[in-house]
Each structure stands twice: as C-alpha cells, then as structure tokens.
Write a structure and sequence with these properties.
The chain is an alpha+beta fold. It is built from 4 helices and 6 strands. A hairpin with a 4-residue loop joins strand 5 and strand 6 (140-146).
Length: 149
C-alpha cells in the first residue's frame, strides 16, 4: 500500500505541474499574439499612415484577427485610399466570422482579398485579405489574415 500511495502522490504532483506549464504557455501565447499588430503597423507605415493601435484581437484563428485603432474615420479613409480598398457589404463577406468577431455593429466596410501585392510584407509574408470597418460607435477596425504558404 505504501508504494501505491506514493505513486498516486507523484502522479498527482506531475499532473498539477503539467497543468501549470500548459496554462503558463497558453497565457504567454495569448499575450504575445500572432504578430498582426506589428505587421499591420509596418504595412501602413510604409504608405505614410501612422496608426495608433488601441487593442489587437485574434478571435478568428491564429492566422487571422483584427486591430482596433485609436484613430477616427479619417484614418480609415487614408487606409482605404492607400491600399485601393473597395466598398463591401458586411452581410456578404466570404468570411462571415469576421463581422461576428467585431466588437459592435459595422456601419461601413472596405476591403481587398486574393493575396494582392499591396498586402505583401517586408519579411516575405503576405496577407490573404485586409478589411477596414467603422463601427456604428465610430471605432476603426482593421481585419486581416495571413496567407498560407
């Protein structure tokens, strides 16, 4: 019985240690994010648009997410013009999860998709699409997804 009891205690301690490691890694990864905030800032900065990111979220997937800008609709218009984004109907997006991830109802939206050259990153990466939205509350959101391969 003494050996069995010691084995149970050791197994329990190992499971607790493993759980703590998993939680620590998950929290660390969530805090680090997927790099989108920096890549979007670089992409826009190369076109003379300096943005102030209020928050970044990746609720869609590890390859996709959005940033909330601490800027107004004028900045949204600059992004639209610089990247040649076309007006979109949020109800007809091929990725409906984008609109559902937004922190509020979207009043206006523009975008570009299909891995355009304008979304190529300096490190060789590429965005598959980029959408700019303005919510009814006036928040400016930039949605993007890293292209595969």
């Amino acid at each position: 019985m003494g050996v069995l009891s010691a084995l149970r205690r050791a197994t329990s301690a190992a499971l607790v240690t493993f759980a703590l490691i998993v939680v620590t890694l998950a929290v660390g990864c969530a805090r680090v994010g997927n790099g989108m905030q920096a890549d979007l800032s670089e992409l826009l900065g190369a076109r003379g648009i300096q943005v102030r990111v209020a928050s970044a979220e990746a609720p869609i997937s590890s390859r996709a997410g959005y940033v909330v800008l601490a800027d107004d609709a004028r900045t949204a218009r600059q992004i639209v013009d610089a990247l040649g984004l076309a007006p979109l109907d949020p109800a007809r997006l091929p990725q409906p999860s984008i609109v559902s991830a937004a922190p509020g109802p979207i009043s206006r939206m523009w975008g570009i998709a299909g891995r355009p050259a304008s979304l190529r990153l300096s490190d060789g990466g590429q965005f598959e699409y980029l959408y700019v939205a303005v919510t009814e509350a006036g928040q400016v959101l930039v949605f993007a997804e890293y292209a595969y391969g």
